[in-house]
Amino acid sequence: MTSTRSTKPGPRERLLVTATRLFSSDGIRAVGIDRILREAGVAKASLYNTYGSKDELVVAYLRSVGDRDRELWRRRADAAPDARGRVLALFDIVRERVEPAVPGSCHLAAAIEFPSPSSDGERAIRAAVAEQRDWVRGTLRSELAGMGLEDPDNITDLADRLAILHDGAVTATMLGEAATTAVTARSMAQLVLGLVSDPP
User: Fold this and answer.
1) Rounded CA separation 97/193 (Å)
2) Is the pTM of this model over 0.85?
């Protein structure tokens, strides 16, 4: 016998998909729970049974988008010829046309919306933002070490500088300037990497 079970996504998935679409397009604070529930076709009890609160749904959204961004980078990094190429892959994905938003932008937007968290839920949101930003810096440090840099202080300092360039590329892309500033940020990163790795 063939199974007749429905393949319709469950409440948890529908809530996350809907929240991801709305939070990334309209902002977190601007989107109320009632709108999410209505557009997801889910009862309020399901939200509290699956995520517990809107704040926890926001955290799930940020982690889900973070996982997507990491996978985008991994695909680019796997095709890169060396550690330098893997660093530049972080800048390359900023220009990819993907949904729900530019890689890195959802976390920057959340940080702007919650500059001074005042509740446990808001602190959890900022922690999810910090996780993704820590991943970017950790990836940079790891790949810089893979390029042969050995001084931990130099690696950390250079990773911080490249992370600032990366933030600038993401912010510019959020403002609709992907074709200019994001490309310039990548070129600057390439120049910096050349200065530390190419022989004089």
Assistant:
1) 26
2) yes
